[in-house]
Amino acid sequence: MMTPHRRLRCKDTMMRHSHPHRLTLSRLAGRGFTLVELMIAMTLVGGLVAMIYGMFARTSDALIDVDAMAGATDEARFALEMVRNELQSAGSQATPNATVDPWVRPNDSPMFGLIPYEGWQNSREIYQGNATLQAIAARNPQSAFSGVVVVGAYDFPQSFLISEVRPDGGRVENVERGMGRLTRIDPFDVSADSAVIADDTDPRALALTEAASARGLRISDRQGYMQFVPVRQASISSGALELTTAAITFRGEGRMTGLESIDGAENDYDAAFLDAFWFRVRVDPFDPTNLQLVRHRLNFGPLMALNSPTQTQLEGVIVGVDDAEREANTLVIANHVVDFRVWFDCANAFGALEPTPLASEWEPATGACLTPPAMGSQPHQARVAHLRLSMRSENERTNRPHFEVAGDADWLGFQEVEGTMQTYDVDPRNPGAASVVTVQSSVDLANFRMRGL
């Protein structure tokens, strides 16, 4: 018979034999992991982390690219809308072509609402600055740039009454149709209240005087005849604006051109200010790989003296006596521009629109009615302006290859090289390219069509 003590020992022995893994786990817990086990674990964990990081990096990169393209799209739309608005105002309070306008006396001055210049359309000369730009040009053969000079009434689009007109100027009196049109009915709200601008020391006077010497002046008589003259100087005294201008011609004995002569003190005429702006693409002064769409304010007087301007001549009439002043009169509309095109639908001798490639696709055509030299051009025949602007994202992406095109090669579904761009190679030394967004718009040149010259 088994004693209680013996039965307990036997039971303990049976339990140990029935659960041998308890001993193994106890031994493993005591001795830890081997080096091979640690290496395998680290490899697995590293691979998992790499997969997670790769997914995160790709997602983050895509989000950054989408955000950059959204910003470029907004900037491109804003820039194109600005150019569109000022093209729509081309010739406002002015004339499409002074040489053929029967209401301009004298009409021998080359005053145009649109001024063409040599190489104004589809130029690639901007790439000739240095070796880097030339290399970029070689990698982006379908990239080109247009430019256009627009003359019209922008800062002060309404007309006003000018009195005491003389051969070298006139006076805008402090009346509702005079200074009231320039201050109290100012669409840009220059005047904070209806108080009279007493003199040049008033901060509100700057809008009228600081850019006056770069502006032009349109004067019309009671018969509707117009004359365009540059403004030399402007000052405010006792609430009135005193203007000094280039020579104003009056009709008189034996003279059939000029303004109607009005005897007496109340020689009032209708007048309007004119501004001249040059839209073009230039190289960023601080970054040679960044191309900017800019708007220069031009000096109206020297501009009128240019019969067939070149780009160099236009650079010489940007308002300012030095680089700092010229830069102050330059507005950067958009950065990272890779393609900017302007072309026009023109009317023929019967007033009907000529056929255009726009009927089948957005392909820039040569603007025949704006072909230089200016004296041989017919800008008054322009009826519709077409704009196309392409802009790139700020940075290249190494996982986005650059698609080069040549000849008639198919390119991402576009059969023509002149199709909208998809990628732009900012740095040919590195792999990858920047994404590109393209916006386009058309604008009816209302003043040109209305006058029907």
Structure description:
The structure is a single chain. The protein has 453 residues and is an alpha+beta fold. It has 2 domains: 255 residues, no CATH class; 114 residues, no CATH class. Helices cover 26% and strands 24% of the residues. It contains 10 helices and 14 strands. The strands form 2 sheets. The protein has a 6-stranded antiparallel beta barrel with strand order 3-4-7-6-5-8. A 4-stranded antiparallel beta sheet has the order 11-12-14-13. It starts with a helix and ends with a helix.
Task: Chart the SSEs and their pairings.
Blueprint: H1 4-18, H2 21-31, H3 35-88, E1 114-115, H4 131-139, E2 148-152, E3 160-166, E4 169-172, H5 179-182, H6 206-209, E5 216-220, E6 226-237, E7 240-245, E8 269-284, E9 287-298, H7 300-304, H8 311-316, H9 323-328, E10 330-334, E11 337-346, E12 382-392, E13 423-424, E14 434-444, H10 446-451
Antiparallel strand pairs: 1-2, 2-8, 3-4, 3-8, 4-7, 5-6, 5-8, 6-7, 8-9, 9-10, 11-12, 12-14, 13-14
InterPro entries: N_methyl_site, Pilin-like
Transmembrane segments: 32-56
Organism: Lujinxingia vulgaris
Runs in which pLDDT lies below 50 for 5 or more consecutive residues are: 407-418
Shape assignment:
elongated
Q: What class would the helix/strand composition place it in?
A: alpha+beta
Fraction of residues in helices?
25-40%
- In spatial order, strands of the major sheet run 3-4-7-6-5-8
Query: How many domains, as an integer?
Result: 2
Strand content: 15-25%
Spatial gap, N to C terminus: 135 Å
Provide mean pLDDT, rounded: 81
Protein name: Prepilin-type N-terminal cleavage/methylation domain-containing protein
Pfam families: N_methyl
Keywords: Membrane, Transmembrane, Transmembrane helix
Transmembrane segments: 32-56
